[in-house]
TrEMBL record:
It comes from Thiosulfatimonas sediminis. It comes from the Bacteria. Pfam families: ABC_tran. The keyword Ribonucleoprotein does not apply. The lineage of its organism: Bacteria, Pseudomonadati, Pseudomonadota, Gammaproteobacteria, Thiotrichales. This is ABC transporter ATP-binding protein.
Length: 254
């Protein structure tokens, strides 16, 4: 098993407001999981806690990633070990070129895996191969990290970074909002291209729309800090048809 989340409970660090209330999730290598649920359910919090963002405190439960205690690792270590979070609102880093930023990140990942460092020339070649694989243009590399990127460009960059870092588990928090159909397709093409027998994805999404392009193996409904229902792709279709009302009614007092 690649990811084993057991009884995860987490709160907002600043206010001690409990958001995750005993969440269980298991992901095997090569699986695509969709996490759906109404606004405020805790979907983004789950992504943030797995990535190790500081605003949240884990109060209970465990997370094993590739046989190791994930919660024990700093965010940088998690990334090096193969956990990738495509940020919902990525940070801008003025003055730092995307290329240098990614070369550093790729070399940190390679060091973790015992692979030799890539110098500038090797990295250029490596990056070009990924750009070709994704059928993308190379222009994003020369810009500052995320500065002035449009919504679509940020998505393109997320997918490109994912390809460069060759993660074991990609967590994507997609609000879908503000994403036009081209950007959705771009994300979906990226996922479908980068999917392997070992690489897994957790795709957080409020709407079913993205799943028209990415077929998940498992669909989960997150509500009130827990996964309250799991199923196959048919669950996404059912939610598209009926919305979350029935599930909310059933689990309101839980
Ligand atoms: P979702 O992504 O499912 O819409 P979130 O994980 O963003 O839900 O939020 C779940 C709940 O936790 C919401 O009520 C939200 O207001 C609250 N919350 C999340 N993050 C914070 C934070 N940093 N500070 C205060 N409240 C937060
Ligand atoms: Mg606290
Ligand atoms: Mg969210």
């Amino acid at each position: 098993m690649l990811l084993d989340v057991k009884n995860l409970q987490a709160e907002v660090e600043e206010t001690n407001k409990q958001i995750l209330k005993g969440l269980n999730l298991q992901v095997n290598p090569g699986e695509v999981h969709a996490i759906m649920g109404p606004n405020g359910a805790g979907k983004s919090t789950l992504a943030s806690v797995l990535a190790g963002r500081e605003d949240y405190a884990v109060t209970e439960g465990s997370v094993q990633f590739d046989g190791e205690d994930l919660l024990d690792m700093d965010p940088e270590v998690r990334a090096r070990k193969g956990l990738f979070l495509a940020f919902q609102y990525p940070v801008e880093i003025p003055g730092v070129s995307n290329k240098l930023f990614m070369q550093t990140a790729v070399n940190a990942m390679r060091a973790e895996r015992g692979l030799p460092e890539l110098d500038m020339f090797d990295f250029d070649e490596y990056a070009k191969a990924k750009i070709d694989l994704l059928e993308m243009r190379a222009d994003l590399l020369e810009r500052s990290v995320n500065v002035g990127f449009s919504g679509g460009e940020k998505k393109r960059n997320d997918i490109f970074q994912m390809a460069l870092l060759e993660p074991k588990l990609c967590i994507m928090d997609e609000t879908d909002s503000g994403l036009d159909i081209d950007a959705l397709r771009l994300v979906a093409n990226g996922v479908n291209t980068l999917k392997t027998a070992e690489r897994s994805f957790i795709i957080v999404t409020h709407y079913q729309r993205l799943l028209d392009y990415i077929k998940p193996d498992h669909v989960h409904v997150l509500y009130n800090g827990r996964i309250v229902k799991s199923g196959g792709f048919e669950l996404a279709l059912e939610l598209e048809e009926n919305g979350y009302d029935e599930i909310i009614k059933q689990h309101q007092d839980a």
